[in-house]
Write a structure and sequence with these properties.
GO terms for molecular function: orotidine-5'-phosphate decarboxylase activity. By secondary structure, the chain is of the alpha/beta class. Helix content is 47%, strand content 13%. The chain has helices at residues 9-18, 30-46, 61-74, 87-102, 123-130, 136-149, 162-169, 196-201, 211-214, 219-231, and strands at residues 2-3, 26-28, 51-57, 78-82, 111-115, 154-156, 174-177, 206-207. The structure holds cytidine-5'-monophosphate.
């Protein structure tokens, strides 16, 4: 999944067009969605891309239910909420999807996943700033278990936590993992990272990669390089 973190529709579509035929999903996050809205999702869908709408909803259950209903109507393939919103909030997201299906406004249900802990969050930040005690992996697995209990299909986490999540929630529970950095790439603001190859060998289902592709002089070459490394 390529994180299409671009400031407007023109820049996003230019990049998406260069990655046509790669088989990659496009991840539409806050930067692009807040600028270009539902229209950019429809445009990318019409070009044949599968879409992960990464808006990380975190609000009271009633609001999340309505938000999920609107997202399901848009026809995205996957979207997410924050696990920190708790069980009833996550269940409300699933109810929103059901509302859209039952009213005939959505043809099929998108996958719904929960953010466990952002991949920019370090052990120190978790304990000292966010105020959650204990090991980061334990906090991630706790959120994954709650997401599973709420009926969500998976979680966003670091590739470093995939085996613990699968052990707790089953092999079929989807893991979507940002925090991917090819060897030698700029780490930026990420904290819990691995290479693409280590992530795949660790059992993740979907890699999310942004800047190593989107900030490259040639995004298609950067993607090609990563894909070659994975199949070698
Ligand atoms: O550029 P980079 O490869 O760091 O992009 C990672 C993408 O994944 C960003 O769009 C970021 O918002 C998203 N993401 C993340 N950590 C999460 C959830 C989403 O980095 N836990």
């Amino acid at each position: 999944m390529v994180a299409l973190d671009k400031p407007d529709a023109k820049a996003a579509l230019e990049l998406a067009d260069r990655l046509q035929g790669s088989g990659c999903w496009m991840k539409v996050g806050m930067e692009l969605f807040y600028a270009a809205g539902p229209a950019i999702v429809r445009e990318l869908k019409s070009r044949g891309f599968r879409i992960f709408l990464d808006l990380k909803m975190h609000d009271i259950p009633n609001t999340v239910r309505g938000g999920a209903r609107s997202i399901a109507r848009l026809g995205v393939d996957l979207f997410n909420v924050h696990g920190a919103g708790g069980l009833s909030m996550m269940r409300a997201a699933m109810e929103g999807v059901r509302d859209a299906l039952e009213s005939g406004d959505a043809e099929r249900a998108p996958l719904v996943i929960a953010v466990t802990q952002l991949t920019s969050t370090s052990q120190d930040v978790l304990n000292a700033e966010i105020g959650i005690p204990g090991a980061l992996e334990d906090a991630v697995v706790r959120y994954a278990k709650r997401a599973h209990e709420a009926g969500l299909q998976g979680v966003v986490a670091s590739p470093l936590e995939v085996s613990a999540i699968k052990a707790a929630c089953g092999a079929g529970f989807i893991t979507v993992t940002p925090g991917i950095r090819p060897r030698g790439a700029d780490v930026g603001d990420q904290s819990r990272i691995t290479t693409p190859r280590d992530a795949v060998e660790g059992g993740t289902d979907y890699l999310v990669i942004g800047r190593p592709i989107t900030a490259a002089d040639s995004p298609e070459k950067a993607l090609d390089h990563i894909l070659k490394e994975l199949t070698q």
